[in-house]
Specification:
This protein has 158 residues and is of the alpha+beta class. Strands 1-2-3-4 form a 4-stranded antiparallel beta sheet, sandwiched between helices. It contains 5 helices and 7 strands.
């Protein structure tokens, strides 16, 4: 499967909305925006992601189809990666390929990531891309409506 990144188009947003509306995907991601299935909040989130200075966000394509998004956001020295792949494509290596492409596009380091401690797939993606676990923490996961265990990772320069 050919995986590529491109800038986000307005026409991608309904696809992202459908992907984020999937309860199983939201549960696994855990750390989602508050109420991501309310269109106004979803749209405001994506407006911020697309217009914030220093934020790099891309649409993930697989064989030309929109299958997710990937981005880097935050202040210098506290920049974080984020990605979302449609659940229909999980387990095929798309998240790893997309994250590697994003890391090549955004060479600054360090980059940080957080994942729910029980999200083995995402933790595996991050570790394959060179992130290393630096800590564990607890944080409020909007998608689960509770505080949960999370893993904190970093990708150093070098």
């Amino acid at each position: 499967m050919d995986v590529a990144l491109r800038p986000v188009h307005d026409s991608d947003l309904p696809v992202f909305y459908r992907q984020m509306s999937d309860p199983a995907s939201r549960h696994m991601a855990a750390f989602t925006p508050e109420d991501p299935v309310e269109w106004g909040r979803f749209d405001a989130h994506w407006t911020r992601m697309r217009t914030s200075p220093g934020t790099v966000v891309r649409t993930v394509l697989a064989d030309g189809d929109v299958v997710g998004s990937a981005g880097v956001y935050g202040e210098p020295d506290e920049r974080h990666v984020t990605y979302w792949i449609d659940r229909a494509y999980w387990g095929r290596g798309l998240a790893t390929t997309a994250l590697r492409a994003l890391l090549a596009l955004v060479p600054e380091r360090p980059l940080h990531a957080r994942a729910a401690a029980d999200n083995a797939g995402s933790l595996r993606v991050l570790e394959k891309c060179g992130f290393r676990v630096t800590a564990t923490d607890r944080g409020y996961a909007a998608a689960r409506g509770a505080e949960i265990d999370e893993v904190v990772l970093v990708l150093d320069g070098g």
